[in-house]
Specification:
alpha/beta, Rossmann fold, UDP-galactose 4-epimerase, domain 1, 2 domains, 7-stranded parallel beta sheet, 3-stranded mixed beta sheet, globular, UDP-glucose 4-epimerase, EC 5.1.3.2
Length: 344
């Protein structure tokens, strides 16, 4: 009998790709999503890819009683992959209490239910923002967690502390925190992908929306950083590789292979690309010219961040296999499908 897994935020960008990867591996999936930053149409995309319809519950995890009722209804949940959170750095600076409520109270309510179970497995969607501007590159899991640059980053740091504290006293709870670098791309079928509401906060959707004509031009924030071409360096990982890492991490817990009941892994490619390199790769791989301008630096941006992936490679037996060009081509294919559906 397959394990039943709850995926919170399962209709979001990374969540939907992980649902697909879990279903393809034989897990039975239940999705919770409040649709505040996603679309119910994503569910149909998942069904088209996997030929399976995951159970879906439209629940706001900030409602403690709703969370309690969910676990009363689904008593056989063996694991949770927790994506549901707000994630825009700028918005978190402007509205910190929204972020603390969305990202921390929801985590607490989930863990309160899981600690009551004789055993439960928990995968936490964390971020490389916990490292800030790291002292050494590439960034390993042993790098110090620095004072957060934003309320969003702080929710990831505090979230990890909450999980670690809970695991120390809840003997049946096992957890893995996955610290992502920069997820990009889309499923190769173009049935699901990144669907930002309003102005994109991330580079690649801004690139594809500019290339399709939805945006006039792309702003490159700063070209005077101490990097090879003056623009910021990030570790861009294909969302399909990232989704696969969640499956492998969950299997590690389900199979009892963990070394402690709270583990941390970085997820990235192990190398970084500058903003201009991403733009050039997009133009080369898609044959589409991209209008862009150099703008001033953006507050809170670190100069460079890319992962030391040795721990995930060795212990999880996972590595990122898809290239930057693969990711950008899939994002472009997805953007064209979205624009066609919108009648543009």
């Amino acid at each position: 009998m397959s394990s039943k897994i709850l995926v919170t935020g399962g209709l979001g960008f990374i969540g939907s790709h992980t649902v697909v990867a879990l279903q393809e591996k034989g897990f039975e999936v239940v999705i919770i999503d409040n649709l505040s930053n996603s679309s119910i149409d994503v569910l149909e995309g998942i069904v088209k890819i996997t030929q399976q319809r995951p159970a879906f519950e439209q629940i706001d995890l900030r409602e403690k009683e709703a969370v309690k009722k969910f676990f009363q209804k689904y008593t056989d949940i063996e694991g949770v992959v927790h994506f549901a959170a707000s994630k825009a750095v700028g918005e978190s600076v402007e509205n910190p209490l929204l972020y603390y409520e969305n990202n921390l109270s929801t985590l607490v309510y989930l863990l309160q239910e899981l600690q009551e179970k004789p055993s439960a497995n928990f995968i936490f969607s964390s971020s490389c923002t916990v490292y800030g501007q790291a002292d050494e590159l590439p960034i390993s899991e042993n790098a110090p967690v620095k004072k957060a640059e934003s309320p969003y980053g702080n929710t990831k740091q505090v979230g990890e502390e909450i999980i670690a504290d809970t695991c120390r006293m809840a003997s049946g709870l096992k957890a893995i925190s996955l610290r992502y670098f920069n997820p990009i791309g889309a499923h190769p079928s173009a049935e699901i992908g990144e669907l930002p509401i309003g102005t994109p906060q991330n580079l690649v959707p801004f690139i594809t929306q500019t290339a399709i004509g939805k945006r006039q031009e792309l702003s490159v924030f700063g070209n005077d950083y101490p990097t090879r071409d003056g623009t910021c360096i990030r570790d861009y990982i294909h969302v399909m590789d990232l989704a696969q890492a969640h499956v492998v991490a969950l299997q590690r817990l389900v199979e009892g292979k963990e070394k402690s009941n709270f583990e941390v892994f970085n997820l990235g490619t192990g190398h970084g690309n500058t903003v201009l390199e991403v733009i050039n790769t997009f133009e080369e791989s898609t044959g589409t010219k991209l209008p862009y301008k150099i703008a001033g630096r953006r507050e809170g941006d670190v100069i460079a961040a890319f992962a030391d992936t040795e721990k995930a490679n060795k212990i999880l037996g996972w590595e990122a296999n898809r290239s930057l060009a693969d990711a950008l081509e899939s994002a472009w294919k997805w953007q064209k499908k979205v624009s066609e559906a919108e009648g543009n």
